Amino acid sequence: MKKLIKRVILAFLTLTLYFQLSFANTFFPDMSNHWGQEYVSWVTEEMDLLEGFEDGSFRPNEIITRGEFLIALNNLLYSMKRYHDIDFTIVMDELPYQDLQDNTMLFNHVKEIQTYIEQSSYTNIKLEDIFVGDKFQLNKPINRYESALLVRAVMTPPVENIRHHYSDLSSDIPFYYEIMEVINNGIMRGYNDGTIRPSREVTRAEAATLLYRVHRDLMYLKENYLDFQPIKGEEIEKKLPLFQLTGDEDEDQLFINAITSLEYISFVGYIPRNESHLYDTEPTKTLWQLKNQNYGNLIGNNYYLILYDKGTGIERKDELVREGLLYLNEEIKYEDIYKIDGLYKFLRIAKQYVDDEEIIMLAEDYYQSASNEAYKVRAGLFIANEYLELNETKAVIDYYREMLSMEMELSIKKQLIKNYAYLISQEKGNPTAVDELLVMRKNTVEDGDNSGELEELRKLYTGIIKQLIMER
C-alpha cells in the first residue's frame, strides 16, 4: 500500500512539473501563440505590473485605461528604484484634475508621476500636457499619443534624432519631436502601412510591450558608463610572467623551477622540508648561475633578480635594469622581442631606476615596432598610464584611440572605451564626445557581426552616449 502511495505521489509530482514546464510561457490560455506572449509573461510573472482576470485570461486585445497604464508605469519606476533621488518634500504643482480625490490610490500614483517628471525628466513635457483638461478620466482608454508622451517623460533621450515620416502624423502637432524621440528609442513603432495611428487606443498586450521597452531603456541608468579607471597591464598579464623562453630545455627548466620557487616562498614564506625535493631551495643562486652562463632569457632573469634578490644592492639592480633596457633597444628589430610575456611588469619595475622620459621613449619604440597586437596593447597601456601620471591627456587620448582598433579582452576593451569617452568629454566637451562616439558606435554596428561581444559593445556605446547627453 505504501509503495502504491509513493508511486501516485511521484506520478503527480512528475505530471505537475511537466505542466509547469510546458505552460510556463502560456499561463493565460488566450496568450497562446499571441505576438505579445513574451511581453505579457514578463509584465505579469517577472515584474507583476499587470494582472490577468479572474477567469484566468489576460485579454491581450482589450484596451487599457489611463489609470491602469499610469499605475503600471509608476510601479515600474519604483521597481527600478528611480524614486531613490526624488525629494517629495518639495512642493510641486497642484494636480489640475477635479475627479481625483486626495490620498486615493490613483491620486497618489498620479502625484508621484508628476513629481518624478518635474524633478527627473529629460524633457519639458508636463503631466497636464499629456492628459489635457480638468479631469483625468481614469477609466478612459489611453491612446498611442498619450502613452508615447508619458513614456517620453520618463525615458532616457535617444542617441540619434532621426525624423521618421508617417502619413497620419503632422510635424505641426504638439510635441512632434518628442514623439520622434520615443520612436528613435525603439519604444514605439509605426505600422507597415506607413502610419503611426496616434489616436488609436492601446491594448493590454501593447501596454505590456511598452513597459518592457521602457524598462530596457531605463536600464541604461543603472550603470555608470563614464567611470574612469586606469587600466593596468597586470590586468592582462595575470599569469606568472615567464618572459620569453630560449628553447634550451635544460636552462629553461632551471629558470622555471627557480621563479616558481621564488613565487612559492613569497606566498608561503618558506619551503617545507618535506617538499624541498619539489622546489629549488636556492632559486636566486640558480638565476645568477644562469646569468653567468649568458642565459638567453635576459629580461626574465633580470626581472626576478631585481624583484627577489634581497642581497643585491641598488646600484647592481640599476645595472640589471639598464642592461634589460639596452637589450630591448638593441633587439627591437627582431620579431621574437615582440612577444615578451611580462614586458609590462618589467617596465613597471624599471620605472624605479629610470626617469620617465627614457622609459616612455623605450616603450614607444617597442609599441611602434611591434606587429603582435596583444603585446602592442600591453605596451600602449603602459605608455598611456605614464602620460596620465604626467597629465598629458592628449597623448593618452591618442593611444586609447589607436588601441581601440586592436584585439583585446572584452573587459579591457569596455573599460578602454569608457576611459576614452570620459577623456574626450573632459577635453573637448560632451557634444564633441557624443559625435565621435556615434561614429564609433555606427562602425561597430556595421561590422555585421551579431555576436554577444559586439552586442555588448553596441550597448556600451549607447549607454555612454545617453549619459553624456543627460549630463546637465
From TrEMBL:
For this protein, the record's PROSITE patterns field holds: SLH
Keyword Amino-acid biosynthesis assigned to the entry: answer is: no
Where does the SLH domain start and stop, copy by copy?
23-87, 162-225
- Tell me the keywords, alphabetical order: Repeat
Question: What InterPro entries does UniProt report for this protein, alphabetically?
Answer: Cell_Envelope_Struct_Comp (IPR051465), SLH_dom (IPR001119)
Query: PANTHER family per the record?
Result: OUTER MEMBRANE PROTEIN ALPHA-RELATED (PTHR43308), S-LAYER PROTEIN _ PEPTIDOGLYCAN ENDO-BETA-N-ACETYLGLUCOSAMINIDASE (PTHR43308:SF5)
Q: What is this protein called?
A: SLH domain-containing protein
